[in-house]
Amino acid sequence: MFIDALEVDDVLAHLLVTEGFSSVEEVAFVPIEDLLAIEGFDEELSEELRTRAHTHLAEKEEEYAVRRSELGVADDLLEVAGLTGAMIVTLGEAGIKTRDDLADLAGDELCAAEDGLLRDYKLSEDEANQVIMAARAHWFDDEDDASDATDDSETPADDASGDEPAANA
Description:
The protein is mainly α. It has 2 domains: 1-71, Orthogonal Bundle (DNA polymerase, domain 1), CATH 1.10.150; 73-150, DNA polymerase, domain 1. Helices cover 60% and strands 0% of the residues. The protein has helices at 2-6, 10-18, 24-29, 32-36, 43-71, 85-93, 99-103, 107-111, 125-153. The N and C termini lie far apart (78 Å). The model has no long low-confidence stretch (mean pLDDT 87).
């Protein structure tokens, strides 16, 4: 993975793995000090690796954007917290093309080990449920907006006599 994504040789790729790096995202977003702590890494090499990682991730996001467009995935699905570009493409390929399509699913339909739509991303059931609830959030926002409009137009009934209610003795 590092060899192709970061355009490095086997030795450097294995060194990154040995030092605990498991993804290009980690290389891109880790504090520079973590890379500098690797024996033989100087600031120039560390910055170059981070730059290559950022470039690789940007290219992948472009690929995902093109594929989402080809699949007809709605922009509202991009607003769902917890989804990556790759996950959205996977969902689009499975026919889940809108936030409401996703919201209609159950958590296990996303993360089940054998047939979950996002099984390759190793989501826990908790994470899958959070994604589903994030997709459903706009349903509740609509209800809150309607309830706010109703609440704003109603005022508590005033006592016609103008007297304060009597205290219970």
